[in-house]
Specification:
By secondary structure, this protein is an alpha+beta fold. Helices cover 27% and strands 25% of the residues. The chain is globular, with a radius of gyration of 17 Å.
């Protein structure tokens, strides 16, 4: 989602810098755990279908089936006018790639699959980036760095820490590996709404930002570019691409902060 007040191409939620996140009860987190399980399972179904010659529209249709089979509803379809169930972003596409029948995957591509569901009144949201057949060493390294950045962010998300500790964990690791984090799009709170406060940037300073507390539920989602951090939105009003044409990867999990630490709700 767009962060702060920069005018987007279409109407999307705008997060505030100062906010009071909605803390979830144990019962609410259990509902989100159930929604998260559907997200993880549906993403795995789609991941297994990724191969050269498959269109992103076919992946979208499969995602819709997998969600329906599990008794949930797609979170993205018609959200702020988005026309699909799945976001499928290929190569230089960062996020919000619209699936299409003519968008056929080729050997060597990478495709970011972002999927959300609504179940029992609560949302789950996750993303993975998948290689299509054999990919370049650069693409392999980009996927590895981005997935590791998410793991480091989750490890930093603990009650008593600050939101900036999570953001900094991503930025420091990514930039140490010679890549860049996207600024315009960020993670977010999640629960009874798909996008809640707080915004969760992938850049920032440790020890800053709001205090992390048990009951907070977040969608943490590093978006990493092999080149520069700047992006632009295509004429369709949704698909964000790297400004320099470099590859981009995206990994995301919905997590819940508890007294024991941080639980990933969207793991398979």
């Amino acid at each position: 989602m767009i962060y702060e007040a920069e005018p987007p191409v279409i109407t999307r939620p705008v997060f505030r810098r100062t906010c009071v996140p909605e803390l979830k009860t144990g019962r609410e987190i259990e509902k989100m755990r159930q929604a998260g399980r559907v997200v993880g399972e549906a993403l795995e179904v789609v991941r297994l279908a990724v191969s050269p010659g498959v269109s992103t529209k076919e992946l979208d249709t499969l995602a819709a089936w997998a969600i329906e089979e599990r008794g949930a509803a797609p979170a993205f379809l018609n959200y702020c006018g988005y026309p699909a169930v799945l976001c499928a972003s290929v190569n230089e596409e960062v996020v919000h790639g619209i699936p299409g029948e003519t968008r056929v995957l080729r050997e060597g591509d990478i495709v970011s699959l972002d999927l959300g569901v609504l179940l029992g009144g609560y949302y789950g949201d996750a993303a993975i980036t998948v290689p299509v057949g054999k990919v370049s060493k650069q693409a392999e390294r980009l996927l590895s760095v981005t997935q590791s950045a998410l793991e480091k962010a989750i490890a930093a998300a603990r009650p008593g820490k600050r939101l900036g500790d999570v953001s900094s964990a991503v930025q420091v690791f990514v930039e140490a590996n010679g890549m860049s984090v996207v600024r315009e799009f960020v993670g977010h709170g999640i629960g009874r709404k798909l996008h809640e406060d707080p915004a969760v940037p992938n850049f920032g300073a440790p020890g800053t930002g709001i205090l992390l507390e048990p009951g907070m539920t977040l969608a943490i989602e590093p978006m990493v570019n092999a080149g520069g951090f700047r992006v632009k939105v295509k004429e369709d009003g949704w698909t964000a691409v790297t400004a320099d044409g470099s590859l981009s990867a995206h990994f995301e999990h919905t997590v819940a902060l508890t007294k024991e630490g941080c639980e990933v709700l969207t793991a398979v």
